[in-house]
Design brief:
Blueprint: E1 2-3, E2 11-14, H1 27-33, E3 37-43, H2 45-55, E4 65-69, H3 72-75, H4 81-95, E5 101-106, H5 108-112, H6 117-127, E6 133-138, H7 148-157, E7 172-176, H8 181-194, E8 199-202, E9 217-221, H9 227-235, E10 239-240, H10 248-262, H11 267-292, E11 296-299, H12 306-315, E12 320-326, H13 335-340, E13 347-350, H14 353-363, E14 367-370, H15 372-380, E15 384-387, H16 388-393, H17 402-421
Parallel strand pairs: 2-13, 3-4, 3-5, 5-6, 7-8, 7-9, 9-10, 11-12, 11-14, 12-13, 14-15
Antiparallel strand pairs: 1-2
Helix pairs in contact: 7-9, 10-11, 11-17
């Protein structure tokens, strides 16, 4: 089915077979963000292998995630999975008393057998009151893409966020979405230099230090896949700042500028802070633009980063967009990004793997951004690829990271060129 719009006449909506990681993968960056939290997946051995391999944890490390494995007796209804879960959680908290927030993460197997983790969280909160807070969310990949796991985790935390006390000034900028600590520190410093009085973040670095939310809170999304969290924050009285996302020089400058405008900061003050960053960022992109300019790019739907990345690669790196696919198109959160895409860009929402691969082969792009499951087969066919999941794990936000972001896409093209001439 094709839907026509004024700006993008070729909006293609597809449904069918999908190729994507499940939301359990988001645990990999969330557990690094909050060292006092623990993520307990209630799932199968396959779930355990997925998270373990995605995280790359060495055998002598003790990570802040684990899997309560559902065995054959659990799946067949021959054992009480709730009793076993209570026992495992008790053992975990006895061994790891530093845990302050425990996330029970649902999976495809736990949802298939209708294991109610919301009730399990209520029960465990009563049992371990004063020691730990138990939350739950779904990381199942049945209907979602892998980045939506973070959206579910943040939504689970939102009821714990306090309401500001009446009669006090609670103006704050709330950056929503996981960032690398060093990147967040840098962005906080820049916002403080502009004169924004208070900058907080969700998720916080400590799971128990949740900022208040209500009137006076301006929400600035750092990630484009947090639709549910954004709407829930607005329902709590926060104001959502409309902006492109902080990928590349242009997007990052506009993102910071939108935050400053929401606080009434003078444009001259904003320019004094941002202009030097823009100049350095453009210099950092320049050598990679030489590799990327004129190359044809096909982005398959995987992470929901595709539209902002397509905008960056087209406008700042000179690439030609063959198609920009996204698992789900939130038109409100993507409004400014859609306006910045080249006119006539074909956008696809949803996925039908076979049809999309047919279009890839027919268009013969120079580079395809896709999930791991499709990358190796396409490489075998002589098509250079970029793993989309690597973009979520890498520090790519902000002007300072613009050169590194461009290099992530230039690298596979350079590798392909070396292999061609080898």
């Amino acid at each position: 089915m094709t839907v026509t719009t004024a700006l993008h006449p070729d909006l293609l909506k597809e449904s069918g077979q999908r190729e994507v990681f499940c939301g359990l993968t988001s645990i990999v960056w969330l557990h690094r963000r909050m060292p006092d939290a623990f993520f307990l997946v209630v799932g199968s051995r396959t779930c355990a292998h997925l998270v373990q391999s995605a995280a790359g944890v060495m055998i002598f490390a003790e990570p802040r995630f684990g899997t309560a494995i559902l065995g054959e007796r659990d799946l067949a209804g021959l054992a009480d999975a709730n009793e076993e879960l209570d026992r495992l959680v008790g053992n975990l908290l006895e061994r790891r008393p530093e845990i302050r927030t425990l996330f029970l993460v649902g999976s495809c197997p736990s949802e298939v057998i209708k294991l109610d983790l919301a009730k399990a969280a209520e029960r465990l909160n009563r049992q371990h009151r004063g020691q730990v807070t138990v939350l739950n969310y779904s990381g199942s990949g049945i209907e979602t893409t892998f980045t939506q796991g973070e959206d579910g985790a943040l939504l689970a935390m939102l009821p714990l966020m306090p309401t500001p006390e009446p009669g006090q000034n609670h103006d704050q900028l709330l950056i929503v979405g996981t960032l690398a600590d060093a990147v967040e520190d840098r962005l906080r410093t820049l916002f403080e230099r502009m004169g924004i009085p208070r900058v907080t973040s969700l998720p916080p670095r400590r799971s128990t230090e949740l900022p208040p939310v209500g009137p006076g809170t301006r929400v600035l999304l750092a990630q484009p896949f947090l639709s549910g969290t954004a709407r829930a924050l607005v329902d709590r009285g926060a104001e959502l700042i409309s902006a492109p996302y902080p990928f590349g020089v242009e997007g990052s400058a506009a993102w910071m500028g939108a935050a400053a405008a929401a606080f009434g900061i003078a444009p001259a003050t904003v320019s004094a802070v941002i202009d030097p960053l823009v100049e350095r960022g453009r210099r950092a992109i320049a050598p990679h633009r030489e590799t990327l300019a004129g190359k044809r790019l096909f982005l398959l739907p995987d992470s929901q980063l595709e539209i902002p990345l397509g905008r960056f690669l087209a406008r700042e790196c000179g690439m030609e967009l063959v198609e920009v696919g996204t698992p789900y198109l939130d038109r409100q959160l993507m409004a400014q990004e859609l306006e910045l895409l080249p006119a006539g860009t074909q956008i696809s929402e949803g996925q039908h793997v076979e049809r999309q691969l047919e279009r890839v082969r027919a268009s013969k792009p120079d580079l395809v951004v896709c999930g791991l499951g499709l990358a190796n087969p396409l490489e075998a066919e002589g098509i250079a690829t970029k793993w989309s999941i690597e973009l979520v794990f890498s520090p790519i936000h902000g002007c300072d990271q613009a050169g590194d972001l461009a290099e992530l896409f230039a690298r596979p093209l350079r590798r392909r060129q070396l292999l061609t001439f080898a």
